[in-house]
């Protein structure tokens, strides 16, 4: 049985690679899309108990481990605490993805709670993703120059990959400057606020992306969250400058938060195959084939692709499905759709193979 499954996956993967060579010409597989919608209707309601419990436990463990890492005398235990802090805070921070997709009426107070617990402390308020990530899911924007979260990485130069990772190491410093220095300056420097909104207020990877100024309720929420982040960043700067926050503890905290952003950047590298080299518009099925699932039996994706991100391709089929329903949705679709369905071609065994594939692509070697 194991052998047959392996062969089926290998054959499906080969078929998928053939299709991906012409992504822009792939029509939608209506049977797959229909099955995805019909078989998962009962999975749409989010569970407040699951969301709040997961967020509070992740953040609680993360902050406790962070405090231990900064105060423990033993280097060995401090390293262990640091690793736990990175993984737990990364999981808590990853809920920004859910905040962007859920209907707020179905989870009252969760967006506010997430911002208080993780968004503001980590200096990544929800407005940095809301109004941006939805463009990535737009049928006519995905993979194009108008997609804030897409670059044709598979056809770019090999040095772009390490640079892509290295930039995330500096993220904590950049965010402190963004909110602790530039936000206060934007109150007195004409035109600076517009520049901050357009170019430095998005969790995007496309350098050509410029976001619009917020309006109405979104603008009011933006100002509230930006103000809170600015107060927090200025406080951190003052605590360091006055010596209240010792440099050793500062270095540990910065290293841990850098680890969170690096881990997220690595996950971003393998979230897609980045094969839309020409930047053409694509069908939903083509977008699915350009995106990655890393389902069980692999265990490590629980750590590096938390909060449902291991089912990223499935998420592109069903962006409104809550993260805790994705595993069951994948089980149902895997069982209902035959091996000839393109659904099976988006599943991969793990991180090493995906990274290796991307590296080979940047070196001009497909596979």
UniProtKB/TrEMBL annotation:
<feature type="domain" description="Fatty acid desaturase">
    <location>
        <begin position="76"/>
        <end position="343"/>
    </location>
</feature>
<feature type="transmembrane region" description="Helical">
    <location>
        <begin position="221"/>
        <end position="241"/>
    </location>
</feature>
<feature type="transmembrane region" description="Helical">
    <location>
        <begin position="110"/>
        <end position="129"/>
    </location>
</feature>
<protein>
    <submittedName>
        <fullName>DesA-family fatty acid desaturase</fullName>
    </submittedName>
</protein>
<keyword id="KW-1133">Transmembrane helix</keyword>
<feature type="transmembrane region" description="Helical">
    <location>
        <begin position="247"/>
        <end position="264"/>
    </location>
</feature>
<keyword id="KW-0472">Membrane</keyword>
<dbReference type="Pfam" id="PF00487">
    <property type="entry name" value="FA_desaturase"/>
</dbReference>
<keyword id="KW-0812">Transmembrane</keyword>
<feature type="transmembrane region" description="Helical">
    <location>
        <begin position="61"/>
        <end position="90"/>
    </location>
</feature>
<feature type="transmembrane region" description="Helical">
    <location>
        <begin position="159"/>
        <end position="177"/>
    </location>
</feature>
<dbReference type="InterPro" id="IPR005804">
    <property type="entry name" value="FA_desaturase_dom"/>
</dbReference>
<dbReference type="InterPro" id="IPR012171">
    <property type="entry name" value="Fatty_acid_desaturase"/>
</dbReference>
């Amino acid at each position: 049985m194991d052998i047959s499954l392996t062969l089926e996956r290998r054959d499906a993967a080969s078929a998928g690679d053939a299709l991906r060579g012409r992504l822009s010409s792939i029509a939608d597989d209506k049977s797959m899309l229909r099955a995805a919608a019909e078989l998962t209707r009962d999975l749409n309601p989010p569970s407040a108990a699951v969301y709040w419990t997961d967020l509070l436990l992740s953040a609680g463990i993360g902050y406790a481990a962070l405090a231990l890492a900064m105060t423990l005398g033993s280097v060995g235990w401090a390293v262990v605490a640091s690793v736990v802090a990175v993984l737990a805070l990364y999981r808590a921070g990853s809920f920004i993805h859910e905040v962007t997709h859920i209907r707020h009426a179905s989870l009252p107070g969760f967006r506010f709670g997430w911002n208080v617990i993780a968004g503001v402390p980590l200096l990544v308020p929800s407005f940095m993703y809301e109004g941006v990530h939805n463009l990535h899911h737009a049928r006519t924007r995905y993979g194009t120059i108008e997609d804030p979260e897409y670059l044709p990485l598979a056809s770019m130069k090999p040095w772009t990959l390490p640079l892509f990772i290295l930039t995330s190491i500096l993220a904590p410093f950049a965010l402190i400057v963004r909110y602790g220095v530039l936000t206060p300056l934007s109150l007195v420097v004409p035109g600076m606020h517009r520049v901050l909104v357009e170019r430095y207020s998005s969790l995007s990877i496309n350098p050509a992306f410029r976001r619009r100024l917020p309006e109405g309720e979104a603008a009011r929420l933006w100002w509230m969250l930006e103000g809170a982040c600015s107060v927090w960043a200025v406080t951190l700067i003052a605590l360091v400058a006055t010596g209240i926050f010792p440099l050793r503890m500062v270095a540990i905290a910065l290293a841990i938060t850098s680890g969170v952003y690096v881990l997220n950047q690595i996950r971003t590298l393998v979230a897609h195959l980045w094969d839309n080299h020409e930047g053409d518009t694509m069908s939903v099925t083509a977008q699915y084939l350009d995106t990655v699932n890393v389902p069980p039996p692999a265990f490590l994706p629980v750590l590096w692709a938390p909060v449902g991100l291991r089912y990223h391709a499935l998420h592109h089929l069903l962006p409104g499905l809550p993260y805790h329903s994705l595993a069951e949705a994948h089980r149902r679709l895997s069982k209902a759709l035959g091996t000839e369905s393109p659904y099976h071609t988006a599943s991969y065994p793990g991180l090493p193979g995906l990274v290796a594939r991307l590296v080979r692509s940047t070196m001009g070697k497909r596979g």
